[in-house]
Amino acid sequence: MYYFIVNKISGNGKGLKVWKKTEKLLQEKQINYQVRFTNRPKHAAEIAKELSSEKCYAVVVVGGDGTIHDVANGLINSNIPLGVIPAGSGNDFARALDIPKDYKKALKRILMGKQRKIDIGRIGNEYFITVMGIGFDGKVAEINNGSKYKNWLNVIRLGNLSYGLSFLHVLLKYRPVSIQLMVDGEKLVFCNVWLIAIANISNYGGGIKICPNACYNDGLFDICIVHGMNKWELLRTFPKAFKGKHILHPGVTMITGKQVEVISELPVIVQGDGEILTKTPMSVTIQRGGLLII
Fold first, then answer.
1. pLDDT per residue over 8-48, tens digit each?
2. 285 CB contacts (<8 Å, ≥6 apart)?
């Protein structure tokens, strides 16, 4: 039995459209399946938690990175693999794992049944699977999630541009802060920090290669600290991040580690997989091979 969790409103309605096409294909192939639709925040996590005790071959998300985040949190510590048919605005998780955008190809991949394990990050009782952003980045995620232009851009299939608009929105008022990091027991201090990205995959924000060398199964976070720039330098450097070239700037420090603690002079927002998780101070650890993917 395949269980599908569908976020009908992901990608400004793309989730429902993709599901209808997928369901027709499942019926043509005579695949045994059941479907559950989300109808409130975190509902996908609740459904996945229920299904984690069922006998099923896979739980498949039809939605975006936020829905994948919730379902992954519900499946942690189960032996049920997670499948993905992309239907969001950014689809960064699918991009990193080479999951096809086309629903037919994505479903074919799931039905082939090849499984693999990926690392996950843990912060308190919650997990993330793509990138955690702290500071400026967290504020951008907060603004982006509540913006009207994100929906408008999704309608014209330019949803990945919404992060850039939110970036500009936050840039006008945001003030960098001093940060103290503990990375695998080593203390690091940075002044005028704009953002810290703790990455399990290379990209976020609709294809921004914030940590271009990050790998989802190497047991390490790649960590990007953007510091010591004025806002105009940040604005000039930002476009380079789409190709991962920002790491050449002297105001960008790249390190790796398994456990990261962050303390800031003022509390700043922390996001994971585009979802607001908490504020600093915080601690995050990597769990190697913590999630099964199909």
1. 988 878 899 999 999 999 999 999 999 999 999 899 999 99
2. 121, 122, 258, 259, 260
